[in-house]
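Fold it.
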Amino acid sequence: MAWFWLVLAGLFEILFATFLKLSDGFTKLGFTLAFVIAAAFSFFFLTKAMQVIPVGTAYAVWTGIGAAGVAIFGIFFFAETLSFARVFFISTLVLSIIGLKVVSS
């Protein structure tokens, strides 16, 4: 169940980073509130995961899910550049997350 909480925390990290961008420097109240709520859920689920998963592994996976997810989200929804190098490094990040899961059993 801890890995489920960790993945959920990572998904909420993607949301809070996206809402942070959309808040336009905290000038848009709706997106600012969405950011705060998504961040609270992300940290809540991260703490639940850390009750079982070692802190170093949990934090690395959480930030990895967030970083890869936001990069992919940016490509699809914010017209960020799509290049071979970017896809390659996002892929290595995802493979590293999977690797941490495999060696943490």
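DSSP finds four helices and no strands in the chain.
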